[in-house]
Input
Amino acid sequence: MVKNILHKEVRLYLVVILLLIVSISAIIIIVTFKDTIYNYQISLPANNQNNHVESFTYGSWPALENADFYNSVENSMIAQKTTFISVNLSTMRLQYYTEGVLTDDVAVLAKGKPGSWWETPAGLYKVEEKIRTDFSNFAHVYSPWALDFQGNFLIHGWPYYPDGTPVGSTYSGGCIRLSTEDAKALYTMVSVGTPVLVSSANFDPDTFQEQFQEPPILATSYFAADLKSDFVFAEKDPDTQVPIASLTKLMTALVAVEYINIENTITIKPSMIVKTSIPRLKVGEKLSLYNLLQPLLKESSNEAAMAISDFLGTKHFVDLMNQTAQSIGMTDTHFTDPSGSDWADVSTAHDLFVLAQYLYDNRSFILKMTTNNKDPNVYGPSVFTNLQNFNVFADDPDFVGGKVGQNGAASGTILSIFNEDFSGNSENIGSSTDERPIMFVILGSDNYTQASQDFLTWIKSTYR
Output
């Protein structure tokens, strides 16, 4: 009898302990869920003529560089009563909305330097992790109240050195810096998974205007315009879809830097050794993305294109190329491979203007890599010491960047951007400076070198 009572008491104790364990586990699960799961299904507005929205996953989203589209996305999230962070890197303001209601509005004190490898990318992200104090192995500084939202990019307070001394500069390695007080307040309000809308759209219209004339260029199509004012100098069949050959590699470079860390190492495989202009890669060698971009953009290396795309899987990489093209407004463009060797890689002269505009405004370091500019950079010289540069104007001091291409279907293609001085033209009005970013693209030319030189000469002479 006593033995049975003892067994019952033991069983009772075990049940109580089990219930306690279950209760504690449930509390942990609830707390963890609250702090780590905060997903939204956000219906986003259309960004093209067909009023069709591509399926979107969180990440870099170049279309958000467009001021009108950024506003439409933000307004859509507010209307859906979404809790989210909105960061405008042009106005340098960060706003926090709770269920669509503005809760906090603070100043952004520093951002990634425009045109650098650390330029903070536009996109729709979400808070991946909350870090009370983050330590950077690269900069050797601590950053308080950090919200990790995209790889190496965080929102945080004012950083300080290990001895406690605050960092003196307003330079940022790509993170969004707030005052420590503002960062702490945001940290306490935000949950992991909260959407982060980032844009550096320029909301100030550019009213610079030029006069229009026609150039004597023989080609299937061409387009020349001012990248800031959108004024068109000349055009011929700008919406005709044609093969573009190795101009494709500008999109390859853009997708690469948007989705792959510039320092990532890529091991060369036999499948990457394809027919190319100047064979350089060797099976088994390990090269960083930065080093592979050099032959890609200067020598138009098909090997480099294959190596870069293979890092994410070539099919997925090409899908990202098409998604990026659509997101920045290249609605008549389609890619089938990362090198431009396939004759089915097609675009229009106007779409390529859109790409040039995006690169100039947001990823100018890609353009700089196409020149023979000797400016030092943090990653040092290329491992390829004898690179050639096929770009026609590579040594011209006014050349900002561009690309050439050629294959049987496309004939010759060229895209070039220059900073041109218009001080000799007294007709220009409404501009605060006489230097303008001028872009031209020529598609389907039997001699793109001569055609491009003629085009540049025509622009300089006509608009002075």
About this structure: The mean pLDDT is 82. The first strand starts at residue 59 and ends at 60. The radius of gyration is 26 Å. The CA atoms of residues 247 and 328 lie 16 Å apart.
